[in-house]
């Protein structure tokens, strides 16, 4: 077998592979000899079938098997021998001429094919002890814990029917019917709907007009759906709602005590505070982690400058670009609305894609040299987390990961990356800094992996994921807003 390099330009490589016809024929004959004692052909005793007859009957099919095996196995062996790693699956090209293919299968001409690929550049790891990061830490106060508990307690709060007018904080039970231009619209009707005034569960202007109503009142209120409302047939439209008030109830007082803890499924108020403190610290810890990670990535970006494989950059750019255009379409905006142009946005997101690929290769090399591994248990936990996100679709998800080549890499990659960051955190200089929660959560446009592309990003997404369900029934409720966040509603 001859391996001839025909292109070495930057990271691009092209290899011509030639396997002489006599070598192909020899392998075919060896397989025919092995098959001689196994095949059963009418007119011949077992083991007595002439090889020439076998060749006539099965030669081409065996040669076709050999070609497929070579195409499947040789590329990785060739790259290994050359000490190269391909950034993507090498592209394989061979003759498409039927007459030429026929000659290959009959061992009349040499079998030739080419490999085209980009190599992963050699990365010389550099010391990281010069990297310095600031880890922002928030001290969780007793007041913040109590404030969070009171929010959680809203789910366990009781209401008592009252006489008189509804005020903010009261719960109104009502029937309503929504109309646009006097015609009822789908999803605009409900009976015995409960609404706590001031909760901002309904569209702007709805709740305010219920302040002062009392049981038995009938009222027509007028509101305007937001311009970015997910249901396109209602967005920006003025609507009326016929309201029949059935009950007005005042909230019972909430006290942070053992009784409240019991209602929330915990044995004591001390345990409740412990759980809430842990949740708050976990939330702040996640933000802190991301900020520290960004600092590390920014400094690695300055340390490592090399050409990234263009095919990997292309693939990453397409993923980013697809998401950006989806966000723009959902918000009904254009690049011009975001003070940029498509050309400028492409340039900026291309730079972002190149950075991500380059840093990904650096982290991969650091992790490989450090012996970082992802265990089977960690992969199983990641898969379980995926299944939890899509209840009812467990079988489809499992089938996807079992049957899709490379799918498991989408589970492994983020775990591997976080473990590499952990390794780096043990080696770099980390300085803790106590900050307020406002400072920690501040949206600093100068920070972050995507800072080079933020100008081109849509500033607002009209159809946020948390509001997506609204578009289906178009009720005035802001459903996602009505649900408690995980930290507020899951004290366990």
TrEMBL record:
InterPro entries: PPIase_dom_sf, PPIase_FKBP_dom, Trig_fac, Trigger_fac_C, Trigger_fac_C_sf, Trigger_fac_ribosome-bd_bac, Trigger_fac_ribosome-bd_sf, Trigger_fact/SurA_dom_sf. Involved in protein export. Acts as a chaperone by maintaining the newly synthesized protein in an open conformation. Functions as a peptidyl-prolyl cis-trans isomerase. This is Trigger factor. Its main location: cytoplasm. Residues 439-492 are annotated as: Disordered. Its EC number is 5.2.1.8. It is an enzyme of class 5 (isomerase). Keywords: Cell cycle, Cell division, Chaperone, Cytoplasm, Isomerase, Rotamase. Consists of 3 domains; the N-terminus binds the ribosome, the middle domain has PPIase activity, while the C-terminus has intrinsic chaperone activity on its own. One of its GO terms (molecular function) is peptidyl-prolyl cis-trans isomerase activity. It comes from the Bacteria. The gene is tig. Residues 169-270 form the PPIase FKBP-type domain. It is found in: Cytoplasm. The lineage of its organism: Bacteria, Pseudomonadati, Pseudomonadota, Alphaproteobacteria, Hyphomicrobiales. It holds the Pfam family Trigger_N. Belongs to the FKBP-type PPIase family. Tig subfamily.
């Amino acid at each position: 077998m001859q391996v001839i390099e025909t292109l070495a330009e930057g990271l691009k490589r092209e290899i011509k592979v030639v396997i002489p016809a006599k070598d192909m024929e020899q392998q075919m004959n060896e397989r025919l000899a092995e098959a001689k004692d196994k095949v059963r052909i009418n007119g011949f005793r077992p083991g007595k079938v002439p090889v020439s007859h076998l060749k006539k009957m099965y030669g081409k099919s065996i040669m076709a098997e050999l070609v497929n095996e070579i195409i499947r196995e040789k590329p990785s062996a060739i790259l290994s021998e050359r000490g190269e790693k391909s950034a993507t699956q090498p592209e394989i090209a061979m003759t498409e001429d039927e007459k030429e293919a026929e000659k290959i299968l009959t061992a009349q001409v040499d079998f030739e094919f080419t490999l085209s690929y980009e190599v992963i550049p050699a990365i010389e790891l550099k010391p990281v002890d010069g990297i310095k990061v600031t880890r922002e830490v928030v001290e969780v106060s007793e007041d913040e814990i109590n404030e969070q508990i009171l929010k959680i307690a809203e789910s366990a709060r009781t209401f008592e029917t009252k006489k008189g007018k509804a005020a903010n904080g009261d719960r109104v039970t009502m029937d309503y019917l929504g109309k646009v231009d006097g015609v009822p619209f789908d999803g605009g009707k409900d009976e015995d709907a409960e609404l706590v005034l001031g909760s901002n569960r309904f569209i702007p202007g709805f709740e305010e007009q219920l302040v002062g109503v009392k049981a038995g009142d009938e009222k027509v209120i007028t509101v305007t759906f937001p311009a970015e409302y997910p249901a396109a047939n209602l967005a920006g439209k003025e609507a009326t709602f016929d309201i029949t008030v059935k009950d007005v109830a005042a909230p019972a007082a909430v006290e942070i005590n053992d009784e409240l803890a019991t209602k929330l499924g915990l044995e004591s108020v001390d345990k409740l505070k412990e759980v809430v403190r842990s949740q708050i610290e976990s939330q702040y810890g996640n933000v802190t982690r991301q900020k520290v990670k960004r600092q590390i990535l920014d400094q690695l970006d300055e340390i490592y400058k090399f050409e990234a494989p263009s095919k990997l950059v292309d693939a990453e750019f397409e993923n980013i670009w697809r998401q950006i255009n989806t966000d723009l379409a959902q918000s009904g905006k254009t690049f011009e609305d975001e003070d940029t142009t498509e050309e400028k946005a492409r340039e900026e997101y291309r730079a972002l894609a190149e950075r991500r690929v380059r840093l990904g290769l650096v982290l991969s090399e650091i992790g490989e040299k450090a012996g970082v591994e992802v265990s089977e248990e960690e992969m199983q936990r990641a898969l379980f987390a995926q299944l939890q996100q899509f209840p009812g679709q467990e079988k489809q998800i499992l089938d996807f990961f079992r049957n899709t080549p490379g799918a498991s890499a989408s589970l492994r990659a983020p775990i591997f990356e976080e473990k590499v960051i952990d390794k780096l955190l043990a080696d770099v200089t980390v300085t803790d800094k106590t900050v307020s929660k406002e400072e920690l959560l501040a949206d600093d446009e100068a920070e972050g992996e995507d800072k080079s592309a933020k100008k081109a990003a849509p500033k607002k997404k009209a159809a946020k994921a948390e509001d997506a369900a609204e578009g289906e029934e178009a009720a005035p409720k802001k459903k996602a807003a009505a649900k408690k966040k995980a930290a507020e509603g899951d004290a366990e």
